[in-house]
């Protein structure tokens, strides 16, 4: 019996030791990779902002966090206010997340000072492989569901719901989620208060 108890004790000690060592290794690896991952994410976002704002020579003057309650749930949006070389406002790039068919769909949408869509890019998608890639192209200027230049003061919806936007073939749910993210991004942009540093207005003229 003593030998059995000793064996069990030894096994527990070994397992605990292995768990501690494994935890230390994971923490070390996480510490090493955290910096590069964060740096890459910031680089991707910076490139995305430039792309959705039309590739202009711009600077992010201020990052605003806007919280809105949507369907009873508080949702956070990040609004990157941009200015040109002369410090004149160009509009903003807005990070917006909504639920798609397979999970969260996060987009970055660029608006000019009138609230017109300058461009967009997909930052994160959990959709079925292929659908995310389609959404990244489908609603661009050369795509069948082109939304570039449109103003979401009247919410953008797919034709199946009485709107004017062509949905991605065989993927109405993803299309609805994408347009919802764009519409919510616009509302977050409109909610920005007056900012003297960027000359941004709390009310952006709409068509």
Describe, in plain words, how this protein is organized in 3D.
The protein has 207 residues and is α+β, with helices and mostly antiparallel strands. The protein has 3 helices and 5 strands, in the order αβββββαα. It has helices at residues 2-52, 131-138, 172-190, and strands spanning 59-70, 73-83, 89-99, 104-111, 117-125. The protein has a 5-stranded antiparallel beta sheet with strand order 1-2-3-4-5, sandwiched between helices. A hairpin with a 5-residue loop joins strand 4 and strand 5 (117-125). It is globular and about 75 Å long. The relative contact order is 0.13. The model is unreliable at 196-207 (pLDDT under 50).
Q: Strand tally, please?
A: 5
Query: What is the global morphology?
Result: globular
DSSP summary: helix tally = 3
The biggest beta sheet, please?
5 strands, antiparallel
* Cα radius of gyration in angstroms: 23 Å
Strand arrangement across the biggest beta sheet? 1-2-3-4-5
The share of residues in extended strands comes to 15-25%
**Quick check: average pLDDT?**
81
Termini separation:
85 Å
Order of helices and strands: HEEEEEHH
Share of helical residues: 25-40%
Counting helices, strands and paired strands, the structural category is alpha+beta
Low-confidence blocks of residues:
196-207
What's the short story on this structure?
By secondary structure, this protein is of the alpha+beta class. 38% of the residues lie in helices and 25% in strands.
Draw up the topology in text.
Layout: H1 2-52, E1 59-70, E2 73-83, E3 89-99, E4 104-111, E5 117-125, H2 131-138, H3 172-190
Antiparallel strand pairs: 1-2, 2-3, 3-4, 4-5
């Amino acid at each position: 019996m003593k030998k059995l108890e000793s064996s069990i004790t030894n096994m527990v000690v070994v397992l605990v030791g292995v768990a501690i060592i494994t935890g230390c290794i994971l923490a070390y690896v996480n510490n090493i990779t955290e910096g590069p991952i964060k740096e890459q994410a910031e680089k991707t976002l910076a490139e995305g902002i430039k792309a959705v704002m039309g590739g202009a020579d711009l600077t992010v003057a201020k990052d605003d966090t806007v919280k809105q309650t949507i369907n009873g749930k508080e949702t956070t949006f990040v609004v990157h206010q941009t200015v040109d070389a002369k410090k004149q406002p160009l509009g903003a790039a807005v990070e917006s997340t909504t639920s798609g068919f397979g999970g969260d769909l996060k987009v970055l949408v660029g608006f000019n000072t009138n609230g017109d869509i300058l461009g967009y890019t997909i930052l994160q998608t959990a959709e079925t492989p292929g659908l995310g890639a389609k959404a990244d192209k489908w609603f661009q200027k050369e795509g069948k569901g082109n939304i570039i230049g449109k103003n979401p003061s009247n919410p953008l919806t797919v034709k199946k719901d009485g709107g004017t936007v062509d949905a991605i073939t065989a993927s109405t749910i993803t299309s609805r989620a994408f347009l919802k993210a764009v519409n919510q991004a616009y509302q977050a942009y409109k909610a920005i208060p007056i900012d003297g540093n960027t000359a941004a207005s709390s009310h952006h003229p709409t068509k």
